[in-house]
Amino acid sequence: GNSVTQMEGPVTLSEEAFLTINCTYTATGYPSLFWYVQYPGEGLQLLLKATKADDKGSNKGFEATYRKETTSFHLEKGSVQVSDSAVYFCALVAPPGNTGKLIFGQGTTLQVKP
Amino acid sequence: DVKVTQSSRYLVKRTGEKVFLECVQDMDHENMFWYRQDPGLGLRLIYFSYDVKMKEKGDIPEGYSVSREKKERFSLILESASTNQTSMYLCASSLEAGRAYEQYFGPGTRLTVT
Question: Which residue of B has its CA nearest to A95?
Fold first, then answer.
């Protein structure tokens, strides 16, 4: 079946450090891939997405590239800030015939210290 | 801005009570979803609906039911609450089925069953 695996957290970084959160997936066909972020006390919001192989999604300094050959969609940011502290979820929607159902990874907590 | 609202942020109920969680979206979205979020497990889909009066089981529907009488409102019902249903419940909506449309999430309801 379809699934998403994220690296275990929590990830603790100092401000301005480089961030990578690994995400790999298993899916039939060509899924669309997403990163969602959940700030403390809030619901999830879309951070970025990619809908086909080699697409790069980017937003707020975060980037992720859809790598079909390695079935990966790793999240990166060159210089994190304290305000980036949150839980990050990798997710996919897998065709065919799906109804927009998202399949989530388990989430990775990021803590950024000043 | 799309807005998804949930009726309560925090709820405490007793074992055996019937519990209603309400979700309302204001963007005329066809699809609505109910997830539960538990540490280490990510988000798991309980039920979703792609049209008024239509519903589909997600991955963990046992112990839950749903109602969608109007397009903007999707209710989750715990017929007889149990302690293992203590969790964060998140509602989401999206524009269309079968496409990589963004899901918009509400702020969540943290339910405690004692």
Answer: B98
B75 touches B7 (CB < 8 A):
no
- The tokens of A103 are what? 């399949």
Q: Angle A19-A20-A25 (CA atoms, 0-180°, nearest 5)?
A: 155
Give yes or no for A56 touching B (CB within 8 A): no
pLDDT digit string, tens, across residues B27-72? 899 899 999 999 888 899 999 998 898 899 998 999 999 999 999 9
Quick check: A102 and B103 CB within 8 A? yes
**Among all chains, which residue has been given the structure tokens 């079935």?**
A71
Closest residue on chain A to B47 (Cα): A101
Rg (CA), chain A: 14
Which residue from B50, B61, B40 is spatially nearest to B92, judged by alpha carbons?
B50
CB atoms within 10 A of CB A67: 15
Peptide bond into B39 cis (omega under 30): no
Q: Which residues of A touch B40 (CB under 8 A)?
A: 106
Q: Compute the nearest-CA separation of B28 from chain A (Å).
A: 16
Answer for the pair B90, B103: CB distance below 8 angstroms, yes or no.
Answer: no
Chain A contact present for B99, CB below 8 A:
yes
